[in-house]
């Protein structure tokens, strides 16, 4: 009995502070993704949870900071398309979940001709880092083919200073958990080829990097291309 009590205390101390709020956001994100909740009800929950997240994690002295490039060892030249034209927000609605349209994100490609998920030059896995400081609000650490989840293994991070939500998708491994605080440059995962459209060989290995403004609960896409151009990496 004493051993069990000590184990429970140890586990409780290991949990991130206030992880419950992030666990709630994580659960809601899965409901939205899977179409298991109505859009209006989901938006009401998002608004309530966002307020609780800011009250818990926002530092009144924090100021918006320049982004860190999210793919370690790479820079803006790895962004797909021409001058950021891969960002196509038309048709995207967060509350459409896995059935959303558009492509309100930038795909950032690595050198991986044999599609083993490793950098061709170094032979090593490629780390994905948080572009901003913030708190992890959702993850999807498991994905197996033929799952039709588009993002595969992914991470959501809220930056309370800007009220932006950052999404990192197509990971091979998730390195963080809901409730965990991160700094800009903290490793959140290892890049992979998970996700309905990222897994097939026709798709080069890439990170799907998206930013949403809270925007009163509308979760509006934001084009970060110009912010990524001078980003540290």
Automatic annotation (TrEMBL):
Gene3D superfamilies: Glucose Permease (Domain IIA). Residues 1-19 form the signal peptide. GO terms for molecular function: metalloendopeptidase activity. Keywords: Signal. CDD domains: M23_peptidase (cd12797). InterPro entries: Cell_wall_metabolism_enzyme, Dup_hybrid_motif, M23ase_b-sheet_dom. Residues 120-211 form the M23ase beta-sheet core domain. It comes from the Bacteria. The keyword Protein transport does not apply. PANTHER family: MUREIN HYDROLASE ACTIVATOR ENVC (PTHR21666:SF270), PEPTIDASE-RELATED (PTHR21666). This is Peptidase M23. It comes from Geobacter pickeringii.
């Amino acid at each position: 009995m004493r051993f069990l009590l000590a184990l429970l205390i140890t586990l409780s101390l290991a949990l991130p502070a206030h992880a419950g709020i992030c666990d709630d956001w994580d659960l809601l994100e899965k409901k939205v993704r899977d179409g298991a909740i109505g859009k209006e009800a989901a938006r009401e929950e998002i608004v309530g949870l966002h307020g609780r997240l800011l009250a818990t994690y926002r530092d009144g002295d924090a100021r918006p900071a320049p982004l860190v490039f999210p793919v370690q060892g790479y820079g803006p030249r790895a962004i797909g398309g021409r001058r950021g034209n891969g960002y196509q927000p038309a048709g995207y609605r967060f509350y459409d979940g896995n059935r959303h349209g558009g492509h309100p994100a930038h795909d950032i490609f690595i050198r991986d001709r044999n599609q083993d998920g490793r950098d061709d030059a170094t032979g090593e896995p490629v780390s994905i880092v948080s572009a901003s400081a913030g708190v992890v609000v959702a993850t999807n650490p498991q994905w197996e083919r033929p799952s039709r989840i588009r993002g595969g293994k992914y991470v959501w991070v809220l930056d309370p200073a800007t009220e932006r939500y950052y999404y990192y998708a197509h990971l091979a491994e998730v390195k963080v958990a809901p409730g965990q605080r991160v700094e800009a440059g903290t490793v959140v995962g290892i890049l992979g080829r998970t996700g309905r459209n990222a897994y097939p060989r026709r798709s080069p290995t890439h990170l799907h990097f998206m930013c949403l403004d809270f925007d009163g609960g509308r979760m509006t896409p934001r084009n970060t291309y110009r912010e990524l151009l001078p980003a540290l990496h």
